[in-house]
Design goal:
This protein is an alpha/beta fold and 320 residues long. 38% of the residues lie in helices and 17% in strands. It has a single domain, classed as 3-Layer(aba) Sandwich (Rossmann fold), CATH 3.40.50.150. Bound molecules: S-adenosylmethionine. S-adenosylmethionine binds next to α4, β5 and α8.
């Protein structure tokens, strides 16, 4: 089992455009609604109040318009307002993963198809992936309100409309079944799984994080998930349970995907994930570490294809 490590753990991916400090003046030029939230911190630098969900939402809108040309983006009240820099990192490391099987070249364009499991109302992974690399995305979610909100964003932006489709998962315990067409191929699947195992576990963890935020921890790059509608953030079995179900289901579409991947936020869950991958006899398994603000995150990637099948795949599907 290979463990890919970053040279500098606290830095975002080299291609991540959010590596530099936020230039708030430039961002407010692109999105004037950010301006009223900009203030000076104790060192005289411009910042916003990262504990204020409206300020974080305005920052996200500014980042999405400035870096990704997304002219309209919104989420319903209480839904997950993601940290854009961290989400972008996962996409760039996925591009590297594909490049490793493509003579170092990142495959770009509409031939590359990705499935974002649990895309949420924010639809941020498909937005970043389609704008950075031209990939096509299907975003799935069990929450129909989230799917409707994501679809409103996609339909409002002509650059997204051609590349992103949304599908509702009607069976809450299913991951791929009901979403993945009989002959459908995906080059990648990605997922930021529901993390907590119950609503009460989520409430106590959030309380702890908010206390930390008020004391100034990890506020600068917006590493916390602001908002977050309860069912977005928890499921039976928590993160480990969700990923285990995904691994089990991946077996049924094993020849229709190049790399399956999922974030694993809690390091302690890796052992369970590796055990599940052993059970299904995945041919290749990689763990890729990423820096997300102050903490290290990671995703696990698995495939049922061997290198010969991967060569066949890229010649057939990526070179058209
Ligand atoms: C932690 S949120 C991630 C949202 C978004 N991708 C992000 O990173 O901000 C997890 C998402 O998974 C969705 N979800 C839960 N069970 C699911 C399932 N079986 N299939 C698809 N989505 C599911 C939730 O509704 C929620 O939107």
């Amino acid at each position: 089992m290979k463990m890919a490590k970053n040279d500098n753990k606290l830095k975002l991916h080299p291609r991540n455009p959010h590596r530099a400090r936020y230039n708030f003046a430039l961002l407010a030029d692109s999105c004037p609604e950010l301006a009223p939230f900009i203030k000076q911190n104790q060192y005289g630098s411009e910042t916003i109040d990262f504990a204020n969900p409206n300020a974080v939402k305005a920052l996200n809108r500014a980042l999405l318009v400035h870096f990704y040309g997304v002219l309209f983006w919104d989420i319903p009240d209480g839904y997950l307002c993601p940290s854009i820099p961290g989400r972008a990192d996962y996409i760039h490391y996925l591009a590297d993963l594909l490049a490793q099987s493509n003579e170092g070249q990142i495959p770009r364009g509409r031939n590359i198809r990705a499935l974002d499991v649990g895309t949420g109302a924010n639809c941020v992974y498909p937005i970043i992936g389609s704008q950075e690399y031209g990939w096509q995305f299907v975003g799935s979610d069990v929450n129909s309100v989230a799917i409707e909100a994501a679809n409103t964003v996609v339909q409002a932006n002509s650059s997204l409309k051609k590349r992103i489709k949304l599908r509702t998962q009607t069976e809450s315990s299913a991951i791929f079944s009901g979403i993945w067409g009989a002959d459908e191929r995906f080059d990648l699947t990605l997922c930021n799984p529901p993390f907590h195992s119950s609503e009460s576990a989520m409430a106590s963890e959030n309380k702890r994080k908010w206390r930390g935020l008020k004391q100034g921890d990890s506020a600068d790059k917006g590493t916390l998930n602001f908002g977050g509608h309860a069912p977005e953030l928890w499921c039976d079995g928590g993160e480990a349970g969700f990923i285990t179900r995904m691994i089990e289901e991946s077996l049924s579409v094993k020849d229709q995907c190049f790399w399956f991947t999922s974030l694993v936020a809690r390091k302690d869950n890796l052992a369970t994930v590796y055990q599940a991958l052993k059970q299904v006899q995945a041919t290749q398994v990689k763990t890729v570490e990423m820096a997300q603000g102050q903490k290290i995150s990671r995703f696990v990637a698995w495939s049922f294809l061997d290198t010969e099948q991967m060569d066949f795949w890229r010649h057939n599907f990526w070179r058209k």
